[in-house]
From TrEMBL:
<keyword id="KW-0472">Membrane</keyword>
<dbReference type="Pfam" id="PF06305">
    <property type="entry name" value="LapA_dom"/>
</dbReference>
<keyword id="KW-0812">Transmembrane</keyword>
<keyword id="KW-1003">Cell membrane</keyword>
<feature type="transmembrane region" description="Helical">
    <location>
        <begin position="6"/>
        <end position="24"/>
    </location>
</feature>
<protein>
    <submittedName>
        <fullName>LapA family protein</fullName>
    </submittedName>
</protein>
<feature type="transmembrane region" description="Helical">
    <location>
        <begin position="45"/>
        <end position="63"/>
    </location>
</feature>
<keyword id="KW-0175">Coiled coil</keyword>
<dbReference type="InterPro" id="IPR010445">
    <property type="entry name" value="LapA_dom"/>
</dbReference>
<feature type="domain" description="Lipopolysaccharide assembly protein A">
    <location>
        <begin position="22"/>
        <end position="90"/>
    </location>
</feature>
<feature type="coiled-coil region">
    <location>
        <begin position="68"/>
        <end position="102"/>
    </location>
</feature>
<keyword id="KW-1133">Transmembrane helix</keyword>
């Protein structure tokens, strides 16, 4: 998978460089009313791609955090269920021992 990622990033960077070589004209971008930036088209494209990459990275981190939190919640629920089941086992063992103690012993009934 790393090789595929490397090739993909390499191809995108190569395309940006080739695009930048061919598009050096100064263009203006209006960000908000009254704020206008003039720079070569290739620089503006590279900046836009960089901002997009940062947003994609932030989104990826956010998804990983959510996944970690949901996994942690599931583990806590499972631990609670395990504790409940262990308590049930102990209770059943105690009940079984009590029932065995109340039963007449097999050795006293067979000696008659």
């Amino acid at each position: 998978m790393r090789q595929v990622n490397f090739v993909l990033i390499f191809v995108i960077c190569l395309a940006l460089v080739l695009f930048g070589i061919e598009n050096t004209e100064i263009v203006s971008i209006k960000i908000i009313e009254g704020l206008e930036i003039k720079a070569p088209l290739s620089i503006e494209l590279i900046l836009a791609a960089g901002v997009g990459a940062v947003f994609a990275w932030v989104f990826s981190v956010w998804v990983q955090v959510q996944s970690t939190l949901s996994t942690r919640e599931a583990i806590e629920e499972q631990e609670e269920q395990i504790e409940e089941l262990q308590a049930d086992i102990e209770r059943y063992k105690a009940e079984l021992e009590e029932q065995q103690r109340l039963l007449p012993s097999a050795s006293s009934g067979s000696s008659n």
